[in-house]
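A reminder before we start the practical. When you read a complex entry, don't treat the lines as separate problems. The point of joint prediction is that each chain is placed relative to the others, so the output describes one connected object in space. Small molecules and nucleic acid strands, if listed, are placed in the same frame. In the example below there are two entries. Take a minute to note the order of the lines before looking further.
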Amino acid sequence: MDNNILFEMKGIEKIFAHVHALNNVDFQVRKGEVHALLGENGAGKSTLIKILTGVYPKDGGQIFMEGKEVRLTSTQEAASLGIAVIFQELSLIPTLSVYQNVMLGKELTAFGFIKEKQEKKRISELIEYYGFSLGVNDIVETLSLAQMQMVEILKALALDAKLIIMDEPTASLSSHESELLFKIIHQLREKGVSIIYISHRLEEVFHLSDRITVLRDGKLAGVIEKENIIPSQVIRMMIGKELSEATASRALKESEKETVLEVKNLSIPGSFRNISFKVKKGEVLVLTGLVGSGRTEVLRAIYGADSLEQGEILVEGKSYQPGIKRAVASGFGFIPEDRRTQGFAPLLSVTKNIAITNYDSLSHRGIVHQKKEKDLGKRAVEMVDLRPANPLVAVGNLSGGNQQKVVLGKWLTRDLKIILIDEPTVGIDIGAKDEIYEMIEGLAAQGVAVLLVSSDLAEVLRVAHRILVLREGEIVREFKEGIVTQEEILMAASGFREEGKEEHNEKKK
Amino acid sequence: MRQETLRRLISLALLLLLVIIFTVTTDSFFTGANIITLLRECSVIGILAIGVTMTIITGGNDLSCGHLMGTVCMVFAHLYHYTALPLMAIILACLVTALLGGAINGICVGLLQIPDFVATLSTQFIFTGLTYILAVRNEFGQIGAIQINNKTMIALGEAGPGGIYLVTFVFLGLAILAQIFLKKTKQGTYIYAMGASRKSAEYSGISFIRTKMTAFLFSGFCAFVAAMFTLGRYRSNEVATGQTFALQAISATVIGGAAFTGGRGDMVGTVIGVVFMQVLRNGMRKYGFTTQTQAVVSGLIIVLMLIFDAYYNEFMGKKNKKAAATLREKKVVNGNG
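Here is the predicted structure of the whole assembly.
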């Protein structure tokens, strides 16, 4: 047995109501190693992390820390063993100083008074040891995001963490800040701290990791040592070959119809640059890319939810100034990413929710025509095949799939030219997903131009007529003719070409 | 510059400006006697504001502190009038009443999770009701004011060294103690943490109930101290005592830079806010403004401060975003293949 191993999981099983989330998974982390955990959404990464941080109990298998078998039944227990998580959403107190944050909840005190000097000394020693650029007295809200992450890491180190889990740590960092974080990760590794690194950004994963464990559909797909990392192979491992033909690839065809929406050189500094494309009548154009690539921001800017720095939008050839009210009047529909907070009013009935976008035609001088409203509700329920088919039920009480149908229904009852859809099937079960895809296809068949943002590759290939891939705020690739596969899209989104291996390796040398 | 620092500078500058204007334009403002009176008048509100600040930093509020003070005053009057208890026993009863009142608020907000605003608005009515129930009545059942002739109590309303009233010393002393508590103790840090981000604070093992309870007990204690000095000054008590004080205390706290959203503010700011409001009132009185006009002007100033907060946050948010964006742009220009 390799006594260089810090942490090991063997034959881990986890079963939720119907789903075998983890099936006989082995996972091992060496001392002072950066170990990346890869897998598509739903591959079981977060379930595995939740088991190793004591959030979920395991249903089978064994866990070892430094050679001794351990039971992880609570987060406190995991923490006391030296396992710490750096959260995606930072958990710092913005108005307190660095040392107050690091010591929060575990202050050194005498008669209730904080031993400030002692605390500060300890923290500044840690800062110095790991070479962070941070002052103990700095107030957290004045720090950059990368520095805030340093504070999070300090919190872990102050608890003598041996294994630090970083879940998408660069998601909200600029590339400069990411570089800083990578430096920190190197320093931690040199000091013998092990890191489990989770990121959608394959480029940084390949650059940072000593080893990669790939999960797929709840099973171990493979463990790769640094010297054997070949990007295209890792991606193939993540996606797998056993995919059904229907979602593995798709034949695309560019539409010949007239252009409904055209955007030229759209830019919002920090979000995206020089975005230009056309959406044609009856076409489903999909914008895809990794987290932080700017997909959602483009959509919001076109709808008028965020203001553009520069660029031009043309609707049916005429110049158009984005703005939410104008958008609705010019035949735009918008289905936002977070339907719970942005898509509907949970306490109101289906009818009321659908009527909200239609009060221009339902009311006269501010008075709502009750009968018209009721009829509209009934019509919409039939149109989207809502279950239960009751227009009076509060939308908050429906299932996720049916809620999304209501959100779609809000716009279906209008005369639409263009519909902008953002991640329509997140958190929706498979049956309802298909119905939503059919509704989107139905809209396109009626001649509506559909602009859809999605990060779910199977979904992209299911509905797209044409695909644009965004990366770091720019369009890096367009797929418009012929067969396209998930692999090709993911390679483009991650910044690799087919021959990515050579290109990548050269850069590192 | 941080919001707090800027707000501190603005309220200090405004205070200074007011003092200069009133000094130059009136003869009677910047005199020893007027300053001493001014400080005496704001001290009771100031003592209440210390407790209110504590609750506001936890992300809450205490709308009931003035009403609780009224109840405490009435407990004193009631026992003083109807019983022959020694003074110390009466004062102890007052302290217990005040802490119980604070504890009720703490239970409502901390344990029962009722939002501070609603909880303390409700306890306002409870405290006012109790005040009426305890009120001293004459033989016809009519509520009347009672005189307090106890020497110790009267002494509380007297002036101390330098002609400055005792209540002013207590106000400033309590403010200093509260400031030390907030900045130097564990529980004080928790008050900031809870107000700035309840989720993060609870994740670090900080108890919501305990933090809220601490703040409201503190506020209750402040109501007790304020009550004693109010009795000492007026040497009498009536049912309406303290009914408008909570809002004045809250206004002063907000002027001082504490944010309703929690996690910001301190006692230095609150002292500045309290003095500011009193200088404004005092000066306007010298100009012959009516009480009603004074209220309108005070209200407008608070609204302006809150507008500043809102705009400042928006502006800073945008500025930070821009800074991050510029960094990213630079990186792209430098070529990251």
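Discuss with your neighbour: Residues 499-509 of chain A have pLDDT under 50 and may be disordered. What might explain this?
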